[in-house]
């Protein structure tokens, strides 16, 4: 069974418009990344309380905190980032979700010319940091969903698997994103096969292979790119998947801090995925 959710900031920065569009789409969960163009971890206590009151009043819940944790260079100081991670745990508690989306670090110095095949010197530090966060997550009854984002250590099927196998924690699971694999010029089917045993969360995005480097500046309606989304969904249904599928279409573009789809295109993205889900024998 799939529960649909959304990175609602792709609809609009305004939380009321976010909710209005999602209600029309019959979606009642949000993956909380930002409102008012401000990241969730940068919002004030008052802003967070106001948003929580709005969600409660409209009958909405969170699928996860869509945090930016892990989106720093691997050689950047760890302790300040760990404090930010602990803040994400506090916000998760405030909103009643045990789930936090995370990443696995940019190259040293966030060097744009870094050879993404040359991670060996930083690999052990990536694993160490991920293990520390998983241990904290266990102590706080939190589940971390690692997203296979472009240019982080865990952007390839092999490195995602390396993280999950090496940390070996029930508190660290995979958020499978077929579009990100295609964007990074990896095979989404290989990504699924190498990580499906750890996958407890889906992000629904499609893209043409190679992403921006190949001239493809924005995401695609699910099923029209190279993500082969139906492959993973069909297998997940067969495996008895029970969890969230979070819409993140990026139909008007996307980058390191998020994406834009708009209130007009978002419903089309939702219905395209619902068709894939039905065709694969899945239910909501």
How would you describe what is shown here?
With 284 residues, the protein is of the alpha/beta class. It has a single domain, classed as TIM Barrel (Alpha-Beta Barrel). The protein has helices at residues 15-24, 45-58, 78-95, 120-139, 157-167, 178-183, 188-195, 229-238, 266-279, and strands at residues 2-6, 29-32, 34-35, 38-39, 61-65, 99-102, 143-147, 172-177, 199-204, 243-247, 254-255, 258-259. It has a six-stranded parallel sheet with strand order 1-10-9-8-7-6. A two-stranded parallel sheet has the order 2-5. A two-stranded antiparallel ribbon has the order 3-4. Strand 6 (99-102), helix 4 (120-139) and strand 7 (143-147) form a beta-alpha-beta unit. Helix 5 (157-167) packs parallel to helix 7. The chain is globular, with a radius of gyration of 17 Å. The N and C termini lie close together (5 Å). 47% of the residues are buried.
Q: What structural keywords apply?
A:
12 strands; globular; TIM Barrel; 284 residues; 6-stranded parallel sheet; alpha/beta
**Class inferred from helices and paired strands:** alpha/beta
Q: In oligomeric terms, what are we looking at?
A: single chain
Gross morphology is globular
Computed Rg: 17 Å
Helix tally equals 9
Map the helices and strands.
Elements: E1 2-6, H1 15-24, E2 29-32, E3 34-35, E4 38-39, H2 45-58, E5 61-65, H3 78-95, E6 99-102, H4 120-139, E7 143-147, H5 157-167, E8 172-177, H6 178-183, H7 188-195, E9 199-204, H8 229-238, E10 243-247, E11 254-255, E12 258-259, H9 266-279
Parallel strand pairs: 1-10, 2-5, 6-7, 7-8, 8-9, 9-10
Antiparallel strand pairs: 3-4, 11-12
Helix pairs in contact: 5-7
């Amino acid at each position: 069974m799939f529960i649909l959710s959304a990175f609602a900031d792709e609809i609009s920065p305004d939380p009321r418009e976010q909710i209005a569009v999602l209600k029309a789409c019959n979606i009642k969960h949000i993956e909380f990344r930002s409102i008012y163009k401000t990241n969730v971890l940068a919002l004030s206590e008052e802003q967070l309380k106001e948003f929580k009151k709005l969600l409660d009043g409209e009958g909405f819940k969170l699928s996860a905190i869509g945090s930016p944790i892990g989106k720093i260079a691997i050689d950047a100081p760890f302790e300040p980032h760990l404090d930010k991670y602990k803040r994400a745990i506090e916000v998760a508690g405030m909103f009643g979700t045990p789930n936090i989306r995370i990443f696995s670090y940019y190259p040293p110095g966030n060097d744009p010319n870094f050879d993404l095949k040359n991670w060996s010197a930083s690999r052990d530090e990536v694993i160490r940091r991920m293990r520390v966060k998983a241990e904290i997550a266990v102590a706080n009854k939190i589940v971390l969903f690692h997203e296979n984002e472009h240019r982080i250590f865990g952007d390839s099927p092999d490195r995602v698997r390396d993280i999950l196998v090496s940390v070996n924690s029930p508190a660290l699971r995979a958020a499978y994103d077929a579009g990100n694999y295609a964007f990074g010029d990896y095979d989404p089917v290989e990504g699924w096969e190498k990580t499906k045993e750890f996958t407890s969360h889906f992000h629904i995005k499609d893209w043409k292979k190679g992403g921006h480097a190949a001239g493809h500046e924005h995401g695609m309606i699910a099923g029209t790119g190279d993500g082969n989304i139906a492959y993973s969904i069909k297998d997940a249904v067969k495996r008895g998947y029970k969890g969230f599928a979070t819409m993140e279409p990026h139909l008007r573009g996307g980058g390191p801090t998020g994406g834009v789809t708009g209130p007009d295109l978002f419903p089309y993205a939702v219905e395209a995925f619902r068709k894939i889900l039905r065709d694969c024998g899945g239910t909501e």
